[in-house]
Amino acid sequence: MEDSKDLRIAVVGGGISGLSAALYCQEHFPDGHGSVSVFEKRERLGGVLNTELRDGFEIEQSADNFITTVPYGLDLCRRLGLESDIVTTTPRNRQTFILWKDRLHKLPDGFMMMAPSKWWPMAVTRLLSPFGKLRAAMEYFIPAKKGDEDESMESFAVRRLGREVFDRLIEPLVSGVYAADMTRLSLLATLPRFREMEKKHGSLIRAMRKNCAEMKKKARQEKKKNGTASQNADTRQSGPRYNLFVTVKGGLGRITSEIEKRLDPQTVYCRTEVTQMARTESGKWSLTWRSLEDGRTESAEFDAVILAGESHNIAKLLGSAQIARPAELLAGIEHTGTVILTAAFRREDIGHPLDGMGAVVPAKEKNPILALSFSSEKYPHRAPEGTVLIRIFSGGSRDPEIVDMPEDEVRDLLLEKMANCLKIQGSPLMTSVSRWPNTMPQFHLGHLERIADLEKEMEAYPTLGVAGNSLTGVGIPHCIHSGEEAARKVLAALEQ
Ligand SMILES: Cc1cc2nc3c(=O)[nH]c(=O)nc-3n(C[C@H](O)[C@H](O)[C@H](O)COP(=O)(O)OP(=O)(O)OC[C@H]3O[C@@H](n4cnc5c(N)ncnc54)[C@H](O)[C@@H]3O)c2cc1C
Questions:
Q1: CATH match for 4-47+252-333+443-495 among 3.50.50.60, 3.40.50.720, 3.40.710.10, 3.10.20.30
Q2: Which amino acids bring their CB within 6 angstroms of ligand 1?
Q3: pLDDT tens digit sequence for 306-321
């Protein structure tokens, strides 16, 4: 083994995936020695994660919160000393609205992403026709599909619950998270738990009802033991499982800035693009980078490299190092762009009671809004008393052109649509537009096989890691895990 004091690792990409990799390397260098360099094209670290603090408002420019069932987000926050600032969604009004025929309707209580857990709210909802309701109820009796092959989200949902429930409830809920084309989105790469439910219980409704009954039982036991039941036992919600999401007071940008504080500023290079990579004769990696400040080009050798940019950017670097098959696999992952518009209003200017966490919009509505989030209703610390913060998620495969529209046009268009939905009078107190072109990977059918192939191919390069949101999940906890796994891989190789 080489003298560990000399170990040099480069991380390309300073988003949450790359930063998690860099932090892990720094915390786990053999004997505590070694240096990690981070290269980032943008002028700041964090990638798409960025929090803007303005006039008492906390504005998330991309991710809004993260799920806790995948533990890596919470674990990282604890390691960074942010645990006491973690906040859960406010327990009141954990429900979602659906825009249908230009009006907001409550999603039937207990309808969680792809399946209902309660009969009555489905029976009385105005979102479905009598035929649509009947077809959904038949799900209980439709036999589970045999075999393990993947299928599109649309095919699965229509097969189980019918076209109407798909078009009016499931398509908008899933689009509001993945901004994807449902006819190509892989069920197994995005929401595999629903296939597991089908397999185990024969029906999603049966599985949801069983789960609901178990949660209620647990809540009763907890209440008996502690006097109160935990928020995880809340069965009166609808939409995403809001009780499982958290954010950090001060914004998610605190996670990346806390990591930055722990890195050596001498080896963090922002506004610097890595343009080439090559294997040296001694088995190290040579990187060439270009400063976006002054155009200067430099090169250096590293013992290991972790590529944590968007997969199309990783592919270019792998290609430059003649690592052809992995480059091809990564280049084949399509991306779309998304837009976030955040606007603050005086509460009295909003006609809608905002008695939920937000709203989603079916494709059939032909509205540029994918989802609305009542940001300060979800997390009240985000806006000063008497005001509200609302954000719009737009773009994706449904409306890819919006990312390239001039900022003023995007703002005017989305504000007008939001004003109609929420009966807003008067102008916003402030607005913020963030555009994220080509950053949202699409887990189309075949994604799992693609990633399995990639992992196999990459075994031939033990000191080269790949990480990022294009691999096993777009959510923040998955990104953190992918960065840490890549770091673990290269450190293990360097220790041998
Ligand atoms: C609008 C939006 C809303 C979202 N909402 C949520 C949410 O609520 N919850 C959730 O969990 N997740 C959410 N996500 C997903 C999550 O935020 C992202 O998947 C995650 O932050 C991506 O992190 P990353 O480090 O993999 O990639 P990025 O943040 O894209 O970082 C990659 C970085 O690599 C840099 N780079 C690339 N190539 C090079 C190169 N050659 N040289 C130097 N630098 C390079 C890029 O400039 C970029 O900064 C959202 C994403 C978006 C866009």
A1: 3.50.50.60
A2: 12-18, 39-42, 47-49, 62-66, 273-274, 308-310, 313, 338, 340, 436, 439-440, 468-469, 474-476, 479
A3: 999 999 999 999 999 9
